[in-house]
Design a protein that fits this description.
alpha+beta; Glutaredoxin; 9 helices; 10% strand
């Protein structure tokens, strides 16, 4: 990853099923709106909800873990007006894995519509959190992708030939190398600055502004 005085690389690591990444969605959009061509926002996907039907019962309880977790997600999002969450999320709609959505997004990034990957990621999140659609279902994902003009056969081709999973593997390797601890994580300044969790927009913006004022080549060698 490289940064310059004119353009700052922002690497954004998230899991599609993470409520905190859903809460962070407006901040993501505001960064692009405010900073425009001065930043390059690069999306990466991490394995937080790779096996929901093991993770959630193990942590929240075998009998009522999904209901408890669903309540937790509702309570977490409640203070954030723009992070609407359907009452069916986790209570009645329980995706098995976020990996399927991540793979389709990686496939989308390998097409001539790669610039629409952020919009597709938002659509997947919106489908789950607002509409309670199961985004671990490949048919659901492909239908949503077609809404944005993606060709389902082309996406399936990227899944079939291994290129999508190879790109996702790169995401997972990068997250490990950079010490990403969870979702969402923002990484700036060639890995020197790591902002993790429910980070406010002003903090994100201030970090970018500081980097634009003081380029990476001025970093201390100490």
């Amino acid at each position: 990853m490289t940064s310059s005085a004119k353009n700052i690389a922002v690497d954004y690591f998230s899991d599609l099923l993470c409520v905190w990444a859903w809460i962070a969605q407006p901040r993501l959009e505001e960064l692009e709106k405010q900073w425009g061509n001065e930043i390059t926002l690069r999306h990466h996907f991490v394995d937080i909800f790779g096996d929901c039907h093991q993770k959630i019962p193990d942590k929240w309880g075998l009998d009522d873990g999904f209901d408890k977790f669903g309540d937790h997600v509702q309570q977490s999002a409640e203070p954030f007006e723009r992070a609407r969450v359907s009452p069916d999320v986790w209570h009645n709609v329980q995706p098995r894995s976020s990996a399927q959505a991540h793979l389709v997004l990686r496939a989308a990034g390998l097409t001539n519509r790669a610039q629409q990957l952020p919009a597709l990621a938002k659509r997947f999140r919106e489908a789950f959190f607002c509409e309670a659609q199961d985004i671990s279902d490949q048919d659901v994902l492909l239908a949503l992708a077609q809404e944005l003009g993606f060709n389902a056969d082309e996406l399936l081709g990227k899944l079939k030939d291994g290129s999508a999973i190879a790109a996702y593997s790169t995401d997972l390797r990068r997250s490990s190398e950079l010490g990403v601890r969870g979702s969402p994580t923002w990484i700036l300044n060639s890995g020197r600055q790591v902002l993790y969790g429910n980070v406010g927009y002003r903090i994100l913006s201030a970090n970018i502004e500081e980097l634009l004022s003081h380029p990476a080549d001025e970093a201390s060698w100490c």
